[in-house]
Specification:
With 188 residues, this protein is an all-alpha fold. Helix content is 66%, strand content 0%. It has 10 helices and no strands. The chain has helices at residues 3-11, 16-36, 40-49, 58-68, 83-93, 100-107, 118-129, 138-147, 149-166, 173-187. Helix 2 (16-36) packs antiparallel against helix 3 (40-49), helix 3 (40-49) crosses helix 7 (118-129) and helix 9 packs antiparallel against helix 10 (173-187). It is globular and about 45 Å long. The chain binds 2'-deoxyguanosine-5'-diphosphate and fe (iii) ion (2 copies). 2'-deoxyguanosine-5'-diphosphate binds at residues 51, 54, 78, 80-81, 84, 109-111, 127, 160, 164, 169-172, 175.
């Protein structure tokens, strides 16, 4: 399957609005990869696929995660988190992507993880700051992204966790571990 076929396949999985978001993440991930010295082609590929399962019925998302046989703990937490590991499995099984860094950038794009790779950080941050995003503080994240990937990502996770706390939501432990890891590394 070539790039154009992949793009058409992904586009068919989601409403137009989410496809526009995906285009924004692709463009932003390429730009961040160029800026921070990562592989733009890998960044784009992970971005294309990152929300592949987002609009699938949640039961299908859960089945896909179970089928993968990994990341099973995420099923004990918010359904909003399931589309990321589900998409990593589809990327591997359906689209035969075998680059672990690309697969992990998809898998951890929502929660992050401890010791994120450069590519993982880029895809995660691109998801926060793509041009279509409009949440309080997004312009500050865009500004931080010009000078520090880690500072921008930390501000992104702090914002996400703050919103979850305000809504009295359960925070996925990995999201917190990611945030703590970024703080520790920035302090070191
Ligand atoms: O898929 P997107 O909307 O582009 O963005 P995303 O994959 O980063 O996030 C999807 C949703 O997941 C978002 O509404 C916030 C939510 N989320 C992220 N971390 C956590 C979380 N929800 C809970 N309950 N716990 C988390 O730790
Ligand atoms: Fe997502
Ligand atoms: Fe996204």
């Amino acid at each position: 399957m070539d790039r154009e076929q992949l793009i058409e396949n992904v586009r068919a999985q989601m409403p137009e609005k989410r496809w526009t978001h995906t285009l924004g993440v692709m463009e932003t991930a390429i730009r961040l990869a160029e800026q921070y010295g990562s592989d733009p082609a890998k960044a784009e590929l992970a971005a294309i696929l990152h929300d592949y399962c987002k609009y699938w019925p949640v039961q299908k998302q859960a089945e896909t995660v179970r089928e993968s046989g990994r990341d099973l703990d995420v099923l004990n937490y918010d359904k909003q988190l399931w589309h990321a590991p589900a998409a990593a499995w589809i990327a591997e099984q359906t689209f035969h992507i075998n680059d672990e860094d690309v697969l992990n950038a998809i898998r951890y794009h929502t929660s992050g993880r401890v010791n994120m790779s450069l590519l993982e950080k880029i895809v995660c941050l691109a998801d926060y700051i793509e041009p279509g995003r409009d949440f309080p503080g997004v312009d500050r994240l865009r500004k931080l992204a010009e000078t520090s990937l880690d500072e921008a990502l930390l501000a992104g996770f702090d914002g996400t966790i703050t919103v979850l706390l305000e809504k009295r939501k359960i925070v996925y432990p990995l999201t917190l571990l990611t945030r703590n890891d970024l703080v520790a590394k920035l302090e070191a």
